Amino acid sequence: MRGTAAIYRRDIKKFLSNPFVIIMTLFMPIMYLVVFGNAMGGAITGVPVGIVQEEPYLDPTPLFQSSSEALSRLAQPGEAPTFAVRFFSSETSAKGALAAGGLVAVVVFPSEVSNTHAVRLYLDSSDFAVPALVESGVRGVLQQQGFGGGLEVNRVYGEIDYFQFFGVGVIVMAIFMSTMMGGVLSLIRDWELGTIEGYLVTRVKRSSIVLGIVGSGTTKGFLAGTVIFVVVLAITGVPFPDAGTTLLVLLVLAMISAGLTSLVFFIASRLRNQQSFAAVNGFLNLMLFMTSGAFYPVLGMPGWLRALTVVNPEYYAVHALRSLILRGQGLGAIAVDLLALGLFAGLCILLGISTFRRTLE
Amino acid sequence: MTPVERGQDPEIIRVEHLTKVFGRGATAITAVDDVSLSIRRSEIFGILGPNGAGKSTLIRILTTLLTPTAGSARVAGFDLVREPGRIRSVIGVCPQAGTLDLELTARDNLEFYGHLVDYPRAELAGRIRELLAFAGLEDRAESVVATFSGGMRRRLEIVRAFIHRPLIIFLDEPTIGLDPEARHEVWEQVARLNAEKTTVILTTHYMDEAERLCDRVAFIDGGRLIALDTVERLLGLVPSGDLVEIRFDRITGDVVDRLRDDPRIGFLEVREGTIALRALNGGRLVPALLGVFEEAGLAVTSLSVRTPSLEDLFIYLTGKEFGAGAATNADSTGAGRES
Fold first, then answer.
1. Hey, which of A144-158, B70-84, B286-300 has the most confident mean pLDDT?
2. Which of chain A's residues have a Cβ under 8 Å away from the Cβ of B98?
3. Contact A203 B116 (CB under 8 A)
4. Which pLDDT value is given to residue B339?
5. B270 and B242 share a domain?
6. Residue B280: which of B256, B255, B308 has the closest Cα?
7. Interface of A with B in 184-203 (CB under 8 A)
8. Does the beta-carbon distance from A201 to B64 stay under 8 Å?
9. Which candidate from A196, A202, A361 shows the least CB-CB separation from B66?
10. What is the pLDDT of residues A106-146, one digit of tens each?
11. Based on the domain organization, do A213 and A311 belong to the same domain?
């Protein structure tokens, strides 16, 4: 009994002696509620949809006019309009915008509607929930207008289920997990064990320490990401991309590994024990993964969460990986993502070098 | 290169009014308190003091791991605060806590540091062989350090600090926790390092270690420097010579009085079954002492003569015992205070 009490008291004392961990412990469930609740449950709004009339030099047909108005007005109660409707002058340019990822769907109204001339809907089927929402929205509007002709639905990237949609996101999570376990953790262990005292007194540069740690963490993350990439393709049944695309996938994996490792380094550069490190990582993992669009479309998040995605490297990585793996797109579609990931990693490394201290204080 | 690096300046480290305070307000602790000292090229310099005296803090400041709260220091001619990078290139440090990578082999550990200190690539393998031989670990080069004994780890760590032939090598408690044999091996190693003209600065709370190894020692207590000189001269500070201890079964007041009257005896204390006294050249006094007992018909069960140690000096200087190991010198405490 006395032993039990002693073990109990010792543990409570240690817990209370680290206020940072206490705060993180309390903070985490609240953040889960706010982030997870908003990221997953939000109404999808502002879906970019292109509308085009087949022969634009003719006057707009009444169906085209009334349908586009109805689509623009469509909204769930108390929410912003569901669709952000953009008009295109030609089918080619609209489809071009769809292929580039600027649009989620294109609705083509033929100049003469008949049973043989159906309204055509081109859908970016690589997203989750959004394609179904667009399809039901367009169908509803057409019915409302008393349109009796058919709706021809074309899923641009074929049938993609949630398993495949989510699978791509899991690759990024695997990289984060390995970043937590490797790279920076070895530095934290060096602080804890005092091993670091041995090499801080050598002439090795501060930047060398930072780059070495970020480099080893990046390698570990990259290897983990590559393994999970192959596993995800195998179990979700997504066809293996061609060699060129695979190389681009590996490039994205390397860049997000560098980005996440350097971010974790920067955040953890002043931490001296594994408990605090674990608490920080749990929090970061939640924030980054939830707002990456891996789980649920970013379009379903409230504005403030969407704003966070702009500075979230995982968002760019998930987008790039979906573009490559699910949509079969090339370098053009992921150029912005690569640029963002590169900038992010570079910035975090610089910040990490400036916050890392060479002294024991 | 600075004059110190070229070997022109006989002084390799100068510390002036160095102070280190940890924390603020009521909980502030002054670990190093206004210490000034100078260390000479190629000497073995000991920093002595009980646990918590501030030795490790002083070493950590001099090795750029901690920044001083006040005061200044130059190490090999470089300013501690402004040129820490240049100091790091000319020092080798063996910290008190084990800093080897236990999951790596002895060779891996040395190689890692070889790269950190920028040792010429082509010569590194040869240098590592040399150091492993120096540490007597050639046959264990490929074993992971986790399988090493405490003494082997220490020897490896010391040669690791020496990999780039630093001007100055700092050893923080190099023999702490080692058995007597391992301590002797480390001492030999330190002496050999010094033979290569490296200045060795070591902290210790073992007096015998300092007496055996150091050219000069600095006593630190409560963060303050209380004495600094060669071991010989410091021992000269302890008054009234050797310590003589006589044990007996029975004694008379007459004998005690006769001893007290002897002008060669500086101080005398009687305890239960023991007389402790101090005298210059105590050894020569032995026949006379025995004679006094014999004349009175009393038996002496044992007699010991011992030259004062640094431990006695420390007790003399601070008026307090030096750790638990000082228990046997309780008598000399009294002597020190009185004289």
1. B70-84
2. 194-195
3. yes
4. 31
5. yes
6. B308
7. 193-203
8. yes
9. A361
10. 999 887 766 567 888 999 888 888 888 899 898 888 888 87
11. yes
Going by C-alpha positions, the residue among B223, B221, B212 that lies closest to residue B317 is: B221
Structural domain range at position A77: 47-155
Rounded to a whole number of angstroms, the distance from the CA of B40 to the nearest CA of chain A is 21
A209/B contact by beta carbon, under 8 A: no
Question: Which residue of A187, A190, A202, A361 is the best one to mutate when testing the B interface, meaning the one whose CB has the most B CBs within 10 A?
Answer: A202
Output the pLDDT for position B326: 36
Whether A193 shows a pLDDT value over 80: the answer reads yes
What pLDDT, on a 0 to 100 scale, did the predictor assign at position A20?
Answer: 82
Asked if residue A226 and residue A83 are part of one domain, the reply reads: no
Rounded Cα–Cα distance for residues A12 and A33 (Å) = 26
Among B318, B312, B264, B317, CA closest to B289: B264
Per-residue burial over B246-257, b if 16 or more Cβ lie within 10 Å, else e, is bebeebeeebee
Has residue A5 got a pLDDT over 60?
yes
pLDDT tens digits along A242-279:
999 999 999 999 999 999 999 999 988 888 888 888 88
> How many domains is chain A built from?
2
Question: Across residues B91-105, what is the average pLDDT?
Answer: 91
- Partners of A203 on chain B (C-beta within 8 Å) are 85, 88-89, 116-118
The total domain count for chain B is: 2
Q: Does B104 touch chain A (CB under 8 A)?
A: no
% of chain B at pLDDT higher than 70: 91
Question: Between chain A and chain B, how many beta carbons pairs sit less than 8 Å apart?
Answer: 59
Q: At what angle do helices A19-31 and A274-290 cross, to 10 degrees?
A: 20
Per-residue pLDDT at B329: 35
More confident residue, A259 or A54: A259
pLDDT digits 0-9 by tens, B203-221: 988 888 888 899 999 999 9
Whether the per-residue pLDDT at B196 is higher than 50: the answer is yes
Flag if A203 and B93 touch (Cβ within 8 Å).
Answer: no
All residues at 6 or more sequence positions from A279 whose CB lies less than 8 Å from its CB, including other chains: A20, A21, A24, A25, A28
Segments forming the whole domain that contains residue B326? 238-338
Structure tokens at A232: 């995800």
- Taking the CA of residue A104 and the nearest CA in chain B, the distance in Å comes to 53
For residues B160-187, average pLDDT: 90
CA nearest neighbour of B265 among B235, B245, B236: B245
DSSP lists the bridge partners of residue B224 as B221
Specify if B309 maps to a domain: yes
B210 and A CB contact within 8 Å: no
In a domain, A3, yes or no: no
> Residue A196's closest chain B neighbor by CA?
B99
Distance of CA B152 to the CA centre of its chain: 20
Q: Is the pLDDT of residue A198 over 50?
A: yes
Q: Are residues A216 and A280 in the same domain?
A: yes
Residues A72 and A206 in one domain: no
Residues 38-77 of B with CB under 8 A from A: 60, 63-67
Q: What DSSP assignment string belongs to B250-286?
A: ---HHHHHHHHH-TTEEEEEEETTEEEEEETTHHHHH
Cβ(A268)–Cβ(A283) below 8 Å: no
User: Are the Cβ atoms of A359 and B64 closer than 8 angstroms?
Assistant: yes
Asked if the structure places residue A6 within a domain, the reply is: no
Residue A204 to residue B60, Cβ atoms within 8 A: no
Using a CB-CB cut-off of 8 Å, the residues of chain A touching B97 are 193-194, 197
**So what's the pLDDT on residue B328?**
35
Q: What's the pLDDT tens digit per position in A170-182? A: 999 999 988 887 7
- The shortest C-alpha distance from A224 to chain B (Å) reads 22
Give the CATH number, domain containing residue B150: 3.40.50.300
| ipTM score of complex | 0.76
